[in-house]
Amino acid sequence: MLNDVAFGQYYPVKSFVHKMDPRVKILALVAYIVALFLAKTFYGLAACFIALALMTLFSRVPVLRVLKSVKAVFFILIFTAVLNLFFHSGRAENLLWHWKFLKIYREGIIFTVFFTLRLFFLVMGSTVLTLSTTPVDLCSGIESLLKPLTLIKIPVHALALVMSIALRFIPTLIEETNRIIAAQKARGADFESGNIFKRIHAIVPILIPLLISAFRRADELADAMDARCYAYAKKRTRYKKLTFGWRDAIGVLLFAALITGVVLFNVYGARILPQYYEYLVLR
Predict the structure, then answer these.
(1) Which residues does the chain have with pLDDT short of 50?
(2) What are residue 271's DSSP bridge partners?
(3) pTM for the structure as a whole
(4) Domains of the chain: total
């Protein structure tokens, strides 16, 4: 499960998406999320899926690698789907099944499928961004986008530095956790049997050495930065300059078209396939 966490894990390959400006990729992800939540019909979701497929194709990241990231939130997807299925109300004539206080309406099934697909696409879109952008570039892009906040005395560079360090250490901590789990299993520890309370209690022997290791690494990093005379300065230079290129222009046009298409589907969706619109619209 820990190996399926995509944050901080970069997939090195030369691709169209990898060479894009990180600022544009971050804004594209924001536009993609906005389009997902603006979508009120399955037509809009289909447009978001096409955009996601194009992002995955042009990033040259293996599809299975992207799909593995969904395993980390699989329980959340199932839990929310079950809640929406049994507790989303609908019209009385569309009641399909009921038992005591549990009821399933046709509208509930449509909403459950729609909401689950929305979360699924959201996780996959975020994964493509993380796998195609190094933590350093990601934080540099965030720092550049948040630079106007320096006018109100917010330490944007310090926030970006903290974020960069956190993303950098996620794969390291995952590797350390797997190593501790393997060592505990070799000593006879059982993490898979028993009720939920026993499993939570079994995690304690993992958390304590993991916290100790994390504090030790943080202390070593602080000493290394101090030994290299690192100091916060208002005007710091960059080794790599962020530039806006033709790939970024194509990305901006693509996601602008995506949002426009979703809005048009919301307004004119009933005119495309009117006989199926009742089943395809989110109520």
Answers:
(1) 1, 275-279
(2) none
(3) 0.78
(4) 2
